[in-house]
Amino acid sequence: MNAPLTSPIPAGAELVTSDLDAARTFYHDLLGWTYTATADGFTASVNGAPAAELRPGPAPARWWTVFGTADVAGVQAAAGRAGARVTEDEVHDPLGGSFRLRTGPTPTIPGPGRPCWYEYMTNDPAGADRFHADALGLRADVPPGAPDDSYALFTVGGAPVAGRLATPPPLDTLLPSGWMVYLAVADPDDVAERARRQGGRLLVPPRDVVTGRVCALADPAGAVFTVIRPAKIGS
Fold first, then answer.
1. Smallest Cα–Cα separation from 128: which of 161, 91, 93?
2. Phi-psi region for residue 214, left (φ > 0), alpha (ψ -120 to 50) or beta?
3. Residues near 190 by Cβ (< 8 Å), separated by ≥ 6?
4. How does pLDDT run across 81-91, given as a tens digit for each residue?
5. Which residue from 94, 152, 173, 185 has the least number of CB within 10 angstroms?
6. What is the three-class DSSP state of 26?
7. How far, in Å, are 122, 147, 170, 185, 197 from residue 167 at the CA level?
8. Which residues contact 32 (CB under 8 A, 6 or more apart)?
């Protein structure tokens, strides 16, 4: 996440939900979030570090990946030429995904209970790579040694800023297309069990992948997110 904000990169996450009080309770109990009121919702923090924005909105609840850029109008225009529908700060791509676009927000610092990665889930990887190159200038690079192109890193100036996953069956029916927010946790298995006890749903059970141990969850209002214990480099 060291790319300059002159290039659009994922800079944070927002939860939009119709019941802010229920969401605040769920994520406080699950991740230890505390809250500061804002003009249109709350800022969630962990140990004093900002984690996410919570804002009111109509059901269904959803997590948004927020892209930061110094040139919102230019990115909106490029996204439109690439086939997206742009509505205020929302960009809805032609593959069914969407993200928010803001002028130069301070990127969220990865850490426990905070967003640490962003990944685009799709059943059309070629189309996703093409759109994000044309709209955001993100290059899709397949990691060295990968057996195929089902997973790629979106890079800016050679630095990875996000991922792209071709969702295989049955994940393509369990997870929505578009941007997924990954929240760092120490024990995904424990978080998954506690989320279920608190009214959430387990969509993808905890499992080990190259990047760590992950599981996908939906909160009680239906907003989908993934928790991950990142793999240690060189382990």
1. 93
2. beta
3. none
4. 999 999 999 99
5. 173
6. helix
7. 6, 15, 8, 23, 28
8. 46, 47, 113
Per the structure block, which two tokens stand in for 170? 């049955």
Query: Is 1's pLDDT higher than 90?
Result: no
Domain ranges of the chain: 9-230
Mean pLDDT, rounded, of the chain:
93
Task: Please enumerate in sequence order all residues whose Cβ is within 8 A of that of 196, keeping only pairs 6 or more positions apart, or say none.
Answer: 202
Residue type, 201: R
Q: Say which amino acid occupies 94.
A: P
Residue pair 117/163 in contact (Cβ under 8 Å)? The answer is yes
Between the CA of residue 1 and those of 43, 92, 95, 115, 118, what are the distances in Å? 21, 23, 25, 11, 10
214, 10 Cβ separation under 8 angstroms: no
Q: Are strands 139-141 and 159-166 parallel, antiparallel or unpaired?
A: unpaired
pTM (global) more than 0.70: yes
**Residue 51 backbone dihedrals phi, psi, to 5 degrees:** -115, -45
